[in-house]
Amino acid sequence: QVQLVESGGGLVQAGESLRLSCAASGDIFVINNAMGWYRQAPGKQRELVAGIVRGGSTHYADSVKGRFTISRDNAKSTVYLQMNSLTPEDTAVYYCNAHGKLYDYWGQGTQVTVSS
Questions:
Q1: 3, 22 in Cβ contact below 8 A?
Q2: What is the pLDDT along the chain (116 residues), one digit of tens a residue?
Q3: CA distance linking residue 116 with residue 109, whole number of Å
């Protein structure tokens, strides 16, 4: 089992920055395998924003490349999403995900709202 708790969301103006945190606990093999951030806006399907895999490689949705950075602190079992140059299109609930061989684990989500 894996437990994920997101934090760091809030209300900001366009052009500002936020850093989201995901504190993970449980199966370290799942946590160290692959983790990511997803987001879901009203009326939209959930989409992968950024991911980080075992070797440290990262990937990003085209819409956030150059603006968002995913990182992890293995000692703290925490994954971060640094979000810069935010736009109203980034408004969504952001979810932390841990991808295991058999199951995916999800946090409760944290709201990010960007005003113009």
A1: no
A2: 899 999 999 999 999 999 999 999 998 888 888 999 999 999 999 999 999 998 899 999 999 999 999 999 988 889 999 999 999 999 999 999 999 888 899 999 999 999 99
A3: 23
**Going by C-beta distance under 8 Å and a sequence separation of 6 or more, which residues neighbour residue 70?**
36, 37, 50, 51, 52, 58, 60, 79, 80, 81, 82
Closest CA to 27 of 89, 99, 116, 93: 99
